[in-house]
Amino acid sequence: MERLSLEMIQQEAAKAHSLQELRIFRDQAHEELQRHLLFARPLDWNRKVNTLHDAIIRRVIQLSEAQLVRESGEAPPVPYAFLLFGSGGRGEQTLWSDQDNGLIYAEPDSEEAKAGAERYFAGLAQRISANLEEAGYPPCSGGVICTNDQWRKSAAGYRRMLREWLENPHWEHVRYLLISADVRTIYGDPGLDGAISGEIIGFIKSNPAMLEHMLHNTLHHKVSIGLFGQLIKERYGEDAGGVDVKYGAYIPMVNGIRLLALEAGIRVSSTERRIQELMANGHVDQEIGRDWLEALTIALKLRSMTPYQIEGSHYTTRGKLTPEQLTKERITELKRCLRIGIDLQKYVKSKFAKR
Fold first, then answer.
1. How much is the pTM?
2. Are residues 157 and 225 in the same domain?
3. What is the pLDDT of residue 323?
């Protein structure tokens, strides 16, 4: 692991002159990181993996901008930011995460300029997304991607969309709001994403009843442990006998911590940092917060151990541990994580039911 330092990752990605060079570097880095997964501290290993993704995505964007300059002579007409959502926005991607991204740009000063900006950024988004696919990142199956004009807007456009979701909080709108709450700028103007996080947190501060709508979505995914402490396993198909680590352990924890962070007005998107700030600002007892950090650590490690495959040129995974991976030691570790997850969901439900 020492051989692949954070500085080396950033330097090697920045040196790539083509997508082919970038993909070769990514494949080599994957092998190196996977070899050291079981011997590293999970949170440190996770930071290294996400430094790798950040460096590759930034270089893809730079190469995409340069392609447009060579082909049409066009550069970005106004400042913009390339955004990550989902696990990328939280800085918690696995080695094989897909594209969850968007694009936000400064408001142009005329109608003609608006049309020009829309056209330019639509073209840039298509180029970036296609190049990310070439680098091994499949598009988001849920459509949270910069080529979807719902996730590519001016700052004012994002505010209008968020306000509509906030004022009409049915299930799908709330789902989009929770996705938006995990935003992080990966490239470009770092001040633009404040139009998103600021709008959500500001509305909640004035309208705390919004948290009740968010609670239903937050508790949607159940922790994969039964009433008597048994693991809930996959019953059918090629994953039969395995355990869904992503949706049965990791996502319930992420969702619960996110809602507590939104109530507290915490703007960081990392689950680890959200827990730390909840503890530091007295929103949760230190002992409870340390349990949450322990469960997050276990969930991130086990999630990164799930088998993956390369389909076409894409890295993909189903996010499930196989029966063979469920050793006695691993089951004990997983059950510890899941019990804390159950307690977290009870804590969140109790807290917002009282409100």
1. 0.94
2. no
3. 94
